[in-house]
Amino acid sequence: MKLQLKYYVFLTLTIAFSFSEIKAQNKVLILGIDGCRPDALLAAKTPHLDNLWKNGAYSFKAKTDDLSWSGVCWTGMLTGVWKDKHKVMGNQYLNPNIKEYPHFFNLAKQQQPDLRTYSIANWSPVHKILQYNDATVVKHKPTDGLVTKSVVKTLKNEDVDVMFVHLDNVDHAGHKYGYAIDNSKYIKSIEKTDKKIGRIVKALQKRKNYANENWLILVSTDHGGSGTNHGKAIPEHTTIFYIASGKDVEKGEIKKQVYVIDVAVTALKHLNIDLKEAWNLDGNVSGLK
Ligand SMILES: [Zn+2]
Ligand SMILES: [Zn+2]
To answer: CA-CA distance, 40 to 55, in Å (whole number)?
Structure first.
């Protein structure tokens, strides 16, 4: 009898200890809004994005590559290195150096091969830096509406660990009507995109296992613009925003200079990936505790 009691005490303690050991699963969602100037984002009515940055870490003075083309900047964001290393110099993605500086999905999988990664984009060239052997689920959708629909469905039904989402309408509006805070059509496109962000975040929070998941949401852009174009090394083109939302962020404005290349590095950190010296990353962790 005494022995049995001892056994039960032991069992109870073991079970209690095991439960206390269960940690929420760290996951990352990156929302990329192409060509969205931070001043225009602040001028637009964007309740969903406001909710993320006002309760999160943020910078509206972050910097992207001096060569402010989409291909160059998205590659920096997703590899964590500048163009002298990743070698993508334009939207044609000629000879990307992904063998030496791969997409961060690939870096993460070197240590956690079972991670389930997703890339859902309106502008399909962003997928050109994914590795052929990387088991990423890749979806190209021709409109932001269809991207959003696909993201919502995927978040509902799939066991996602990391997801990159690319929305393109704001950049389309900039090229067509002009990138400026006094351009109502450009502002309107940001407001419409905010509604899509709202649908995506809601879908995330409705995930079956959400209570046991620890999501970091990163929202940023590849570049700004002026007139009806971008590509130059001027503040209107190279100033971007950076938002980090989740339980592990240090709330408030990020005081140091934030760069587009910090996105991949911050995502890796949140996934508990050991940031290897040999990877030679340029970015830093931004906005986490
Ligand atoms: Zn772009
Ligand atoms: Zn553009």
So the answer is: 20
Ligand 1 center–CA 223 separation, angstroms: 6
What is the tens place of the pLDDT at every residue in 80-118?
999 999 999 999 999 999 999 999 999 999 999 999 999
CB-based contact 129:98 (threshold 8 Å)? yes
What is the CA(279)–ligand 1 centre distance, in A? 26
Taking the CB of residue 34, how many other CB atoms lie within 10 A of it? 25
> Which DSSP string do the residues of 102-159 spell out, in sequence order?
--HHHHHHHH-TT--EEEEESSGGGGGGS-TT---EEEE-SSHHHHHHHHHHHHHHS-
Question: How far is residue 287's CA from residue 96's CA, in Å, rounded to a whole number?
Answer: 29
Residue type at position 92: Q
93: left (phi over 0), alpha (psi -120 to 50) or beta: left
* Among the bound ligands, the one closest to the CA of 76: 1
The per-residue pLDDT for range 146-185, each reduced to its tens digit, is 999 999 999 999 999 999 999 999 999 999 999 999 999 9
The CA 237 to ligand 1 mean position distance, Å, reads 10
When the candidates are 3.40.50.720, 3.30.1330.10, 3.90.1150.200, 3.40.720.10, the CATH number that belongs to 25-279 is 3.40.720.10
User: What distance in angstroms lies between residue 222's CA and the mean position of ligand 2's atoms?
Assistant: 9
Closest ligand relative to 72 C-alpha: 1
Ligand 2 midpoint to CA 175 (Å): 6
CB 129, CB 71: distance < 8 Å: no
